[in-house]
Amino acid sequence: METNAREAILDRLKSAHPASVPPRPSLPPARELALDAGECVARFQEQLAAQGGVAFQMADEAALLARLEEILRQEAVTRAMAAEDAVLAPLDLSPWGNRVGVEIVSPAAFNDRDGYTRAVFDQVQAGITGADYAVAESGTLVLVHDARQPRLISLAPLVHIAVVPLARVVPTYEAAIASLFDGGRRPSQVTLITGPSMTADIQATPFRGMHGPQKLYVLLLG
Amino acid sequence: MSSASLFIPCIVDLVLPGIGESTAAIVRHLGLTPRYHQAQTCCGLMAFNSGFRDEARRLARHFIEVFEADEVIVSPSGSCVNMVKNRYPELFADEPAWQRRALALAPRVFELSQFIVDHLGVTDLGATRQAAVAYHESCSTLNGLGVSAQPRALLAAVRGTTLVPFKGADVCCGFGGTFSNSFPEISTALVSQKVGFFLESGADLLVMCDPGCLLNIQGYLHRHHPGKQALHLADYLAGALPAGTGRRP
Amino acid sequence: MKVSTARFRQTALAELANARTQKFLQILPLRLSARRQEAYGSFSDPEAAHRLGQAIRGEALARLPELLEQFERNAQANGAKVFWAADSRAANGYIADLARAKGVRYVTKGKSMITEELGLNEHLAGCGISAWETDLGEFIAQLLEKPPFHIVGPAINIPVEQIRDIFLAKGILDQPTTDPVALGKAARRFLRDKFRDLQMGITGVNIAVAETGTVVNVENEGNIRFNKSAPRTLVCVMSLEKVVPTLADALHLLRVLCRSATGQAAGAYISLDSGPRKNGENDGPEEMHIVILDNGRSAIYANRHTREALRCIRCGACLNACPVYGKVGGYPYGWAYSGPMGQVLTPALRGLADAGDLIRACTLCHRCKSICPAGIDHPGLLLHYRYKDVQADPLLAGRGADPKERLAHRLFALAGSRYAYWRLFSRTLRLAGRFFTRGEMLHGLGPLGRGWFQSRDLPALPKKSFHERWPEIAAKHDHRL
């Protein structure tokens, strides 16, 4: 049945009158490609702000942690789940959390999926992640999900805080995405995040935090 | 080129012949001799739009036979010109011989303002008329032929005439040929919106390049706002020409 | 969803008289059009970006069978299971069997027009499995059993009182409120419970990438991400035309899609899935099923006219540009797809039997065509459908012409085929017109033109046609005839 449907569909498509492949107009390079590094960061911040995200730029780790503490306090966060991706792991947030009075939960602490799911849905008020890239053209974070970057941390809690090294700010999607799929790499999921979860489905009234985070903070480091 | 062949749409022939006279007057004013084939009838637009392609082909063949020897063909109707230029090739998709004839004819057919501005390179007709004018972008003229700057340039060059800003200038007036009769409530909602914007604009006159839109808008104005007037571009310009060359409707 | 395309006219009349509908139509399409216009300004060359998107869709269709095979190969290599469904029965059956095999009691759905097309919710309900829409607008529309009002805001026109009442009745809301935000929060709480315990999620597909076997979705709420991330089983249903050659093509299409739909440079969430989760991952599906749905599309593809409808990327920009949609809203179109998009897709997918008014409710203004990022010639396609309808085309289930209308067109074409006949026709017409003329205007034509004369007059027919005037004009100016 399955094979038959497949063959029948493909046969019909193949026997259809062939059409020629239309020529592609050449597109001038994106405006963002002409920006220098500083302008790229500014563009990223401006575009993110247009979609309701907030970005801060910190010179060093100490400043970053101070800002993180301030945000967690402001959002009344007592427990947060933090990914252990390449950006966050060196920050070693768990002992730091103990010092500032916020319990930092690691997804690795759960040996069953249901326990992890319950925690990320119900037991933490914030999710903290690194990001693989920040894209200037649209103010977008790129997160590659893998064993160190679970999907729900940046989705289920009401607050999402993402840390991005300045060197990871790129002008356009192409630079980021091509490298992630390079050499046959196929990340199971890549997510592009541009602002908090939003809707305007009732009477066109904007409402943030429809399903995912109500707040998105981006901490640019460097 | 010393003459131009007039393509007078059936709606102008039967209902609004004055627009045809104005067109002839403008052509003459430009130093060309207007010619008119008495054998012409209808381009087949209405039949085509209604799905009756056999009937549309019959009319289109007649049209091609009548006009194909002409050097330039001018018409005061964006939608009819769009039919001949852009729909005939599709209409004759299965008749290569007729399709060739249609394709050969297409580049020689012009909407009036397109003919004056693009083909003759004229924008100033030396005309004078004191009026604040709003320009309605007829859909086939704008989206089918890409003609918008031409009529605006012609109007702007008339001494004493000012083009006023017109909200929703490029939104359909709700004519759509048989649509206006088949879906009267939707059509009325659209023409009443168009007329509302016209009244808001403060313009004295609403000018356009398509006799279909004109019937619709003027018909609505006559019923609901009898003091206000819509006019075809040809009538507006011809009425503004120096005495003796034009014809004021 | 009940299909009510055949009632286009009645529904349109009701919506024209509905003050709330009219209020929303005054605002929403204009606002979205303006946003789109502004967003396109961020391209280095908006016109070239527009045409590149159209070329990508054109190439995708030209190379469709080859790209589908490539996509299938790569998706399978990524670990996804690919199922080809000939029709909605096959697709619904596959999904229901899977749900039963997994022992799930309910499924959730990301916003997806394709599952609307399948009637998947009804099918699953028949199998004892509830299906919950999770996009807020779709969720409300589902509860109220309404078709989408607008593809970007399916329930945006629904009064808050009505939402309050249905939420109270369904136990979604405890305390009555008409605050849109409070209503949104109630839906969040309700659906969050569904997501937490979710066993199987179902989404549509915005773009499928042949070179990588990747499925791409765009959204603003995050419900699709939940559907893709929370459950152990994920089903992505894609209509077979969604595939594009490369990731770079997908990125460009995303740019034009987001700008065209909501005027955003990017939707809040874009997710690219290449197979199920890998070892060691905390979340994400253990099984990823991709259903490639035909449902008549390969037959549509065979015809070079109807094939063009398959370019559509469901952005909804044509709704905002359409003068008719702008007066009647989404309900008259009577199915998942409204506006010009619905007028080209619905007849292609369901045939012409119920679509007589649907394909004629268009003034052929061409605005949809000029803004379409996928390069669809909507008016051209509608003219084709009208032709096929009049012809009683068996493939599209055309209904054949109304005999009176056909006779009128035949007689008119006969009259126009020779000048002698035309002169006779012209004289007869003007003679008849005189009968109805009062002063300078015609206020009616008896049984003819009743629709026209509801709100408009016609000028009195002239005593002489242009044909008859010409000899005098020519003589006066000494033109040869």
Task: Write up what this structure looks like.
The complex is a heterotrimer of chains A (222), B (249) and C (481). Chain A has helices spanning 2-15, 37-50, 61-74, 93-100, 113-123, 173-180; strands at residues 54-58, 79-82, 103-105, 126-130, 133-135, 140-145, 159-165, 169-170, 189-193, 198-199, 207-208, 215-221. By secondary structure, chain A is α/β, with parallel strands linked by helices. Chain A has a single domain, classed as Rossmann fold, CATH 3.40.50.10420. In chain A, the strands form three sheets. In chain A, strands 1-12-7-4-2-3 form a six-stranded parallel β-sheet, with helices on both faces. In chain A, strand 5 and strand 6 (140-145) form a beta hairpin. The longest helix of chain A is centred in the first third of the chain and has 14 residues, at 2-15. Chain A starts with a helix and ends with a strand. Chain B is an alpha/beta fold. Chain B folds into two domains: 3-118, Rossmann fold, CATH 3.40.50; 123-238, Rossmann fold, CATH 3.40.50. Chain B is built from 13 helices and eight strands. Chain B has a four-stranded parallel β-sheet with strand order 2-1-3-4, sandwiched between helices. Chain B has a four-stranded parallel β-sheet with strand order 6-5-7-8, sandwiched between helices. With 481 residues, chain C is of the alpha/beta class. Chain C has three domains: 5-298, 3-Layer(aba) Sandwich (Rossmann fold); 307-390, Alpha-helical ferredoxin (Fumarate Reductase Iron-sulfur Protein, Chain B, domain 2, Orthogonal Bundle), CATH 1.10.1060; 403-476, no CATH class. In chain C, the strands form three sheets. Chain C has a six-stranded parallel β-sheet with strand order 1-10-7-4-2-3, with helices on both faces. The longest helix of chain C has 22 residues, at 19-40. At the A-C interface, helix 1, helix 5, helix 6, strand 9 and strand 10 of A face helix 2, helix 3, helix 4, strand 1 and helix 8 of C. Strand 9 of chain A pairs antiparallel with strand 9 (269-273) of chain C.
